[in-house]
Design a protein that fits this description.
23% strand, 4-stranded antiparallel β-sheet, 524 residues, Rossmann fold, 22 strands
Length: 524
C-alpha cells in the first residue's frame, strides 16, 4: 500500500481543493515542433507537479517551456524567453515551433502562445507578467568549480558583506538537512562583491561553501531565494545532491511554502522518495514509445516510474497492476497454474486506475517495446487493451470473502498460526469499512508481516477458491498478448482438486523475488 501523505502535503491538498486560492496559475501548456514534441498537452492539476521520465524523454523541455510562458514582473531584472532555452546552433535550427498556454488570472483564462514559424520567435509581448524562479542544475556545481570563484579562496581577502538567514530560514535549513546550525548567511568578499558564498556555523565554528557538502550548498542557495506570492517556481532535478530523508523534508518544506504563498511549482525528478511525497494527481510520467512518440501519463506509482527507468532484472513480460495487493494476487494465480510463465513475469504497480487505462491503450496500439499486459482490478470493468482480475471487486474483498466462505482452510498452517486465532483476526478485520486496511489489521493481530499474510491468502485462494477455468484463461490471455508459446502438459493435483504445472522458484513483484508457497509445504 502507498504511504500516507505528510501533514504538510495534506494541508496543501486541502487548501487546493477549496478552489479559492492560486489566482495566478498556468492550467496547461502544449509543446509542438521542439525536441520531438508534437502538440502533447501537459496539465497542471496540483500546485506542485512532478515530471518524471527517462533521460531524453522531455522533462527539461516541459520545465523550460513553462518558464518561457510568462514575462518577468517589473521588479525583476532577469527576463527569459523561449530563445534562451531553445536556441539555434550550428547543429540545430528551431523552425515551425509553438508553445501554447492556458494561464489563469482571477476568474479569467488567457490562451496565449509563443511561436517560431521561421527564424524569429513571435508572441513574447503578449505574455502575462508573473514572477518566475527558474532553478536549474547549475546549483549543484561545487563552489570551487564555478567560474570566478577560485580566486575568492584567498585568506588575504576580507568579507565585504553578508545576508544573514532569518530565524525562520535557519529553522528550515536545520529541518531539511537534519543538522543544527548556529547561523547561516550568504557572504561576499572585497575581491568580488557580485559572487556570494554560503557560510554556516556549527558550535561556533564557521565554514564556507568551499568546505561544505554539495547538499548543504544546494539547500542554502535554494532557501536564500525570495519567492513572492503567486510565483511560478521551476526546479530541475530537485533531488540532486540530497539523501532520501533530505529529499522528503525538502518536499514538505516546499508544500508549506506553496500553501502559504500560493506558489505553483513544476519540478523534474528521478527519485521515488520525491514521488512518494506527492499525491497521485501531482505525478506525470512522460512515456516514450518505440517510435519516439510521447504520451503523458498522470497518477503513476513510484514503482511504475522506477521500473520504467531501470532495466534490472530482465524479466520477459511486464504485468502492470494497480497496486502490490493486485500484483501478488496475479502472481499467485500464475504460480499455481502456469509457473513457467510466472518465472518470466514481473508485476509492476502503476497507481491510479486511469494510469492503467492509458497503458491499456498503448498496449492495444502496440506501442511498448517490451512484452506488456495491463490488469485492472475486478471492480473497474473492461477497458481497451486491459485484462481484468477475477472477482468483480477489489482484490482484498475478493480474497477475504472467498476464503471466509471456505472457512479459511489452509491459511493458518501456511503462516504458522493456530486456526482459531487466524479466523478471529481475519473475520474481525472484515468488519472494517476500508478494505485496503484489512490485511494490515489481520496481520497485526497475528503478529505477522502484512505481505506474508497476503501471499499466503492469495496462494490458498488461487488453489481452493478460484475456478481453474478462470485461472487458465488469465494465463492464456497473458501468453497470447505477450506472444509467448503455450505452456506444457498440465498435471493434476487431486488432493486440491485443481490442475497445474510443476513448481515455481520465484514469484517476482517489482523486482522482489519471493518464494512461492505450495500445498505440499503445509500440514493441513
Amino acid at each position: 500500500m502507498p504511504p500516507q501523505l505528510s501533514k504538510e502535503m495534506r494541508r496543501l491538498a486541502a487548501r487546493w481543493d477549496t478552489k479559492t486560492g492560486w489566482p495566478k496559475r498556468m492550467d496547461y501548456l502544449e509543446i509542438e515542433g521542439i525536441r520531438g514534441w508534437t502538440g502533447q498537452r501537459f496539465e497542471f492539476a496540483f500546485p506542485i507537479m512532478a515530471v518524471v521520465g527517462e533521460n531524453g524523454a522531455g522533462k527539461s523541455t516541459v520545465l523550460q517551456a513553462a518558464a518561457s510562458g510568462y514575462a518577468s514582473t517589473p521588479a525583476r531584472t532577469k527576463f527569459r524567453f523561449a530563445s534562451d532555452f531553445f536556441p539555434d546552433t550550428p547543429w540545430d535550427k528551431v523552425r515551425g515551433a509553438e508553445l501554447r498556454y492556458a494561464v489563469r488570472e482571477g476568474g479569467a483564462q488567457h490562451l496565449l502562445s509563443v511561436r517560431k514559424p521561421t527564424d524569429r520567435w513571435r508572441g513574447n509581448p503578449d505574455r502575462r507578467e508573473r514572477n518566475v524562479e527558474y532553478i536549474d542544475l547549475s546549483r549543484v556545481q561545487p563552489v570551487p568549480a564555478r567560474v570566478g570563484y577560485t580566486r575568492l579562496a584567498n585568506p588575504a581577502l576580507q568579507e565585504a558583506g553578508s545576508r544573514l538567514f532569518a530565524d525562520d530560514r535557519l529553522d528550515r535549513l536545520n529541518s531539511i538537512l537534519g543538522r543544527q546550525y548556529d547561523l547561516a548567511r550568504m557572504a561576499t568578499t572585497i575581491g568580488d562583491q557580485t559572487r556570494e558564498v554560503p557560510v554556516v556555523s556549527q558550535q561556533g565554528q564557521p565554514y564556507s561553501g568551499f568546505h561544505q557538502g554539495a547538499g548543504e550548498t544546494t539547500i542554502m542557495e535554494f532557501l536564500q531565494r525570495d519567492m513572492p506570492k503567486y510565483s511560478l517556481v521551476v526546479i530541475d532535478e530537485i533531488e540532486s545532491s540530497l539523501h532520501p530523508r533530505a529529499q522528503r523534508r525538502l518536499m514538505r518544506d516546499l508544500a508549506d511554502k506553496c500553501r502559504e504563498n500560493e506558489l505553483q511549482v513544476i519540478l523534474s525528478t528521478h527519485s521515488p522518495y520525491v514521488l512518494e511525497e506527492l499525491p497521485l494527481a501531482a505525478r506525470a510520467y512522460i512515456l516514450v514509445d518505440a517510435s519516439g512518440g510521447r504520451e503523458i501519463v498522470y497518477g503513476v506509482s513510484p514503482e511504475f516510474a522506477m521500473t520504467k527507468m531501470d532495466e534490472m532484472p530482465h524479466y520477459e513480460i511486464d504485468l502492470y497492476v494497480e497496486d502490490d495487493r493486485a500484483g501478488r494476487m496475479l502472481m499467485e494465480i500464475l504460480a499455481a497454474y502456469d509457473p513457467d510463465l510466472a518465472l518470466a513475469c514481473q508485476a509492476v504497480p502503476y497507481g491510479a486506475a486511469s494510469v492503467g487505462q492509458a497503458l491499456g491503450v498503448m498496449v492495444d496500439e502496440q506501442r511498448f517495446p517490451r512484452k506488456t499486459c495491463v490488469f485492472l482490478d475486478g471492480d473497474r470493468g473492461p477497458s481497451r487493451g486491459c485484462l481484468v482480475l477475477p472477482g468483480e471487486d477489489a482484490p482484498e474483498r475478493v480474497v477475504f470473502d472467498a476464503l471466509s466462505g471456505r472457512g479459511w482452510v489452509g491459511v493458518g498452517a501456511r503462516v504458522g498460526r493456530e486456526y482459531p486465532a487466524l479466523v478471529d483476526a481475519c473475520e474481525r478485520a472484515m468488519t472494517g469499512s476500508e478494505h485496503h486496511a484489512w490485511v494490515h489489521e489481520a496481520a497485526s493481530r497475528l503478529v505477522l508481516g502484512a505481505d506474508t499474510l497476503w501471499q499466503a491468502m492469495c496462494a490458498v485462494w488461487a488453489i481452493e477458491c478460484l475456478p481453474p477455468a478462470q485461472a487458465q484463461r488469465i494465463a492464456g490471455s497473458i501468453r497470447e498478448m505477450a506472444d509467448v508459446p503455450a505452456a506444457g502438459t498440465i498435471t493434476s493435483r487431486p488432493e486440491f482438486g485443481v490442475a497445474r504445472v510443476g513448481r515455481p522458484g520465484v514469484s517476482p513483484i517489482a523486482h522482489e523475488p519471493q518464494p512461492a508457497l505450495w500445498p505440499d509445504d503445509a500440514q493441513d
